[in-house]
Amino acid sequence: MDFSGRLGGSHGSGARRDVDEFGRERRNRPHHRKPYERPTRGFRGGRPSMGGRGGPPDEAKEIESRLSSLIIKVGDKNTPTLQNNLDALSVVLEKDFTKHEATVLKTLRQCVLELPWKVTVYSTLAGLLNAKNSETGAKVVALMHAVLRRELSAGNWGSVKVLVRFFALLVDANAISATMLLAILDAFLKPVVSDNGAEIVVSAQNSCYVFIVASALLWGGRALKQHAPEELAARLQTIERYVQRHSELNQDNALAAVFHDAQPKGTNILAYQLGVLREVAEAEWKIDAVFVPNGMFASELGQATQHEVPALELPTGLRSDSYYTPCEFLQLVPSPAELAVRRYVLQDLIADTISQLEGNRKDCAKYLMQVHGLCGEDVCSIMTAAQHPEDVDPETSLVFEYMMVEVLFTSLMQLPEGPYREMYYSSLAIELRKAEPQILANVFETAVENIVARISSFDVECINRLSNWLAVYLGNFGFQWDWTKWEGAAEEAESSPRRRFVEETLLKLIRLSYLDRIKTQLPESCLSLVPSKTPAHNFKFTVQSMDERTREVSVAMGRCLKNKGTADQAMEILQTHYSQWSDIDEETRQGLAREMLVEHVLLLGSKTFSHMLNAIEKFMPALQRFGDSPEAKLQIAKVVEDFWLKNPQFCAITIDKLVNYRVIDPTTVVAMLFDASHVGRWCMFHLWEILRNTVNKVNMRVVQLQGRLNAAQAAANAIVVDDAEPSDPQQQQKQQGESVEHVESVLEQMLLEQREVVVLTTQRFVQLLSASDGTADELDRAWLMGRFKEFMRSYRVQIVANAQALENQVFTADASQDTRQVFENTRMLST
């Protein structure tokens, strides 16, 4: 009997198809090929397709694939064959450009954007294409200028910085004139100087623009010095004036300082960058850190045609916090001061690579390990190539791996906020360590140890970020770490920065694994830093702790919930029992009933997160009925906190869901967090995790409602007439108008709630920091002040929007001077 039809096999006789046990055709893939290893992986614009799945690619696709591969791989290393490779590639591309123009231009565009450390190579290649055929060169220049305009409109400042650098190098490649470059730079510098030219206008937008111009001058200064020296001097003078004015306005702003014992420099690297520019100018604008191949083709490029580009229009109407200016690179490992220019150039290219390949951690890790390929001779030491990595001394030379890790941590710790999600840096570090397991394991460990050695001056928010990063990083490598170096933390005060960092990191590791597994990794001296028992709930109504009549209520509630009773049945039980307690007033009875219900609902859902969500959803009507006043909501929140006192993770999740279901309000959470019972415990991380989650939820709702309002307004303005089914335009407009009015009403309420949360949180911070009994000691106050700075930085847009209300209600004569200073610094960050 033939069962092939039933099981999905081929019918009839003939050759058997290669299928699996489910009748599916097997995919022709080598055993070692991963699903994510596709030809288009890593380039946002996509590399040219390798052909369809059904058969071999045609000749045109094969040629396009080969051209794309040649462009991507050229200049990976500074080798003696680089000149020949570039020349040969330019000949091939010029020959095939007519047939494969789209492929060549698209690949070149993506290479410039996503391989920024090879921008000197691609500018030379563009110059060679221009020298061989001016029409081809014109198309390359026009494309890149169009990409620059697009990235400007989108506010992608990392890409804008790379593209302006590319145009600066095109001057040396003779593809555009010095005048054209100056026009591009002047578009950025125009808002920096007032209309009469007498004053410098300092703002987040202009700091971003100055940073981009200074980055371009670092690479284009040599050509401008040769062709337009006076104009170059004028632009440098504008940058110097801006940096000086910016330093005057931000000299006391320490809100963006990662290390408090470092000299505060605001939110940017402008002063340091200016110093680098001056040193490069003294060296006749020669950069020896990275090889620039333009000089090898000086005679050929000198005969090329220069092209003009349209004027740039900068975007308007962007929020101040949408502009990007990176902070100064952290120096976690000492390096020679005389190598500061080389260090900056290399770390700048590393930072651009991390930024531009943010969407693909695997390709980012791969290309980061190649950044040193274009370094000049003896520019930096490479531990991967060293016979004995431990012999490489970072104090006598630049060590590439240490610089790379410093840039990663700089971006992770950037204030007032990091450019990307924290998980990106953890996943990138994991991929880097996989590439060089032994060497980078030691490098990361050294960097973290050097930070922890200075942790008493480390910003509180950055301590939080480092703890999150380290927990995820260790979780991917068997939780292996040399904890003996930090065993002294167990003997420190409970609120000391080092002890809190180690304890919070271990708590996160327990979340990622389990308690006994983490205990096996710790030396005996560190066991006191982890809980003695697995985190569990703290149910109040145990048999031993109750009197007779309370036990009756608790047992009845327990049976009701265990037998899948409803919310109405639970309410009836509470009403029946507590109505008989005549010795207490109604308000007290309501409080006892509320506490009994919440405790049993939490106990019902205490097994897993899913159980908790189901329990809250099932008894939500009863919980909402009991939460009929601010005092009642606050009692519910406090019961939740007490129930999960030994399990901060469950506490945070439960509070979050109660806010979602409107059992409690965001202001309830604020009141609960700043309760007097937390004095002396401001160092606990989970308190501020709950606060961030709550405020972020409110802000997210505002953004969502604003989007709904925009959509409703667009629908109301668009009159669609359907000839097949005519409708009453007045009725349609009325319905759309009512919809807009409804969304506007809801948005107005949410904006009011957002304002209330921001003002109340700021008020509670200031009250505690200004009162003698708001903190337990100096360490406790330092933690609270650190969280206050974090809150003001993170929500500076909302703080500035409500500045008048804060001045009238919060920052009165009773507010301490240091809280006032934080408020002023926050306003400066937002200008």
UniProtKB/TrEMBL annotation:
<keyword id="KW-0508">mRNA splicing</keyword>
<dbReference type="Pfam" id="PF02854">
    <property type="entry name" value="MIF4G"/>
</dbReference>
<feature type="compositionally biased region" description="Gly residues">
    <location>
        <begin position="43"/>
        <end position="55"/>
    </location>
</feature>
<feature type="region of interest" description="Disordered">
    <location>
        <begin position="1"/>
        <end position="60"/>
    </location>
</feature>
<feature type="domain" description="MIF4G">
    <location>
        <begin position="64"/>
        <end position="265"/>
    </location>
</feature>
<feature type="compositionally biased region" description="Gly residues">
    <location>
        <begin position="1"/>
        <end position="12"/>
    </location>
</feature>
<dbReference type="GO" id="GO:0005846">
    <property type="term" value="C:nuclear cap binding complex"/>
</dbReference>
<dbReference type="InterPro" id="IPR003890">
    <property type="entry name" value="MIF4G-like_typ-3"/>
</dbReference>
<dbReference type="GO" id="GO:0000339">
    <property type="term" value="F:RNA cap binding"/>
</dbReference>
<keyword id="KW-0507">mRNA processing</keyword>
<dbReference type="GO" id="GO:0005634">
    <property type="term" value="C:nucleus"/>
</dbReference>
<dbReference type="GO" id="GO:0003729">
    <property type="term" value="F:mRNA binding"/>
</dbReference>
<dbReference type="InterPro" id="IPR015172">
    <property type="entry name" value="MIF4G-like_typ-1"/>
</dbReference>
<dbReference type="Pfam" id="PF09088">
    <property type="entry name" value="MIF4G_like"/>
</dbReference>
<dbReference type="InterPro" id="IPR016024">
    <property type="entry name" value="ARM-type_fold"/>
</dbReference>
<dbReference type="GO" id="GO:0000184">
    <property type="term" value="P:nuclear-transcribed mRNA catabolic process, nonsense-mediated decay"/>
</dbReference>
<dbReference type="InterPro" id="IPR015174">
    <property type="entry name" value="MIF4G-like_typ-2"/>
</dbReference>
<keyword id="KW-0539">Nucleus</keyword>
<feature type="compositionally biased region" description="Basic residues">
    <location>
        <begin position="26"/>
        <end position="35"/>
    </location>
</feature>
<feature type="compositionally biased region" description="Basic and acidic residues">
    <location>
        <begin position="15"/>
        <end position="25"/>
    </location>
</feature>
<dbReference type="InterPro" id="IPR027159">
    <property type="entry name" value="CBP80"/>
</dbReference>
<comment type="similarity">
    <text>Belongs to the NCBP1 family.</text>
</comment>
<dbReference type="GO" id="GO:0008380">
    <property type="term" value="P:RNA splicing"/>
</dbReference>
<dbReference type="Pfam" id="PF09090">
    <property type="entry name" value="MIF4G_like_2"/>
</dbReference>
<dbReference type="GO" id="GO:0006406">
    <property type="term" value="P:mRNA export from nucleus"/>
</dbReference>
<dbReference type="GO" id="GO:0006397">
    <property type="term" value="P:mRNA processing"/>
</dbReference>
<protein>
    <submittedName>
        <fullName>Nuclear cap-binding protein subunit 1</fullName>
    </submittedName>
</protein>
